[in-house]
Amino acid sequence: MASPPKARDAGARQRLIEATAKIMADEGYAAATSRRVAAAAGVKQALVYYYFPTMDDLYVEVLRTGAETSLERMRTALTDEDPLRTLWMINSDLRMTGLNTEFMALANHRKAIRAELRAYAERVRDIETAAVTVALRANGVDLDVHPPVVVSMLIAQIARSLCNESAVGVTLGHDEMRAYVDRMLALLVTTTGG
């Protein structure tokens, strides 16, 4: 009796997840078909559906895997001495732009992806806001004047917007915005009492 695919190749599932993420980042989600993913992972196409009953299940797992890695990195990084700058740097990472954009596009068409992306975004927002709250309190910033959720959203969204624009070649105003954010972050960490 032949052993089930899982027993024969324990690493296949992870290779499928990694291959899907790479194809999505490099060529877009439409290119991440079961046939392409299987070929890139070095397995038979049927094995894709053995591990993931639908392609949406595979996409969700790619999102979850990346999200858990990102969340852990974020939790660790935001306990740094300067969490505001760390938040800026994390969200300024151009390497994540392509895959994030693909998941946003996929979420427009797939409810399962939309739900997973929303859950991840809310967890990110909670972590970012908690880190900003600690940093602002430690620097005596008035949280009524500078609400932590607003500060965290401004930092993260400006950084992500610059990444998204850079990905399509738009750079006008980027240097000025980075210099402005740098000055504002310096002000927030030297403010006493807001």
Textual characterization of the structure:
The protein has 194 residues and is an all-alpha fold. The protein has helices at 5-8, 12-27, 34-41, 45-51, 55-77, 83-91, 97-107, 111-138, 148-167, 174-190. Helix 3 (34-41) crosses helix 4 (45-51) and helix 8 (111-138) packs across helix 9.
- Would you tell me the overall average pLDDT? 90
Contiguous runs where pLDDT drops below 50 for at least 5 residues = none
Principal-axes geometry comes out as: elongated
Element pattern in H and E: HHHHHHHHHH
Number of strands: 0
Main sheet properties: none
Distance between the termini: 72 Å
Q: Structural class, judged by helices and strands?
A: mainly alpha
Provide the helix percentage: over 70%
Radius of gyration: 20 Å
Total helical elements? 10
Please state roughly what percent of the residues sit in beta strands, choosing from under 5%, 5-15%, 15-25%, 25-35%, 35-45% or over 45%.
Answer: under 5%
Provide keyphrases for this structure.
194 residues; mainly alpha; elongated
Task: Give the topology, please.
Blueprint: H1 5-8, H2 12-27, H3 34-41, H4 45-51, H5 55-77, H6 83-91, H7 97-107, H8 111-138, H9 148-167, H10 174-190
Q: In brief, what are we looking at here?
A:
The chain has 194 residues and is mainly alpha-helical. Helices cover 74% and strands 0% of the residues.
